[in-house]
Design a protein that fits this description.
178 residues; mainly alpha; Tetracycline Repressor, domain 2
Amino acid sequence: MSENPADLVRRRVVEAVSDSMRSVQHREHGELHLYLSLLQDRLPVYVGTVADLLSHVGQASVHKNLVMVAEATITFYNEVLAAKVAVVASPAQLVRLRQVMGPRQLGPHQAENSVAAYLRQEQELGRVAEEVEPQAVARLLIGACLNCAFTGLLLGDDAVPPRHEYATGLIHGLRLSP
């Protein structure tokens, strides 16, 4: 039996944390360890939600399914972004993060690929317009959700609409219907 996506990601993040802990002095990369620990806890839940999207092909509405993913993406980034920013601010920690995540295929591109795969399948069913480019829409969706979380982190929660309102408006603005 194959590993479900959330368990696979959890295993990869645990490996990344272990590898990172063995190869660097903890005090030099404290922010990296914090970020990887947050990922170990939060990423499997997020990946489970995004991976579950494929089981919703042809069910509910495309709008509803994508709002669910957008809300999960905003929630995920709200939980980990402050720690991630601290890692990105340090060139040495950023290099180390790339070293531990790259070989394990961890990164936002995985969510983009899952959303794009979902959109392609919905397109085949005629529930998404033919002229829609699934990969581009997936990038816009994930990127906009990251921006929402970043704006909230930078300027405060009052600077962005409530999560559901933001997600609903975002999906509506993508104009996916045939």
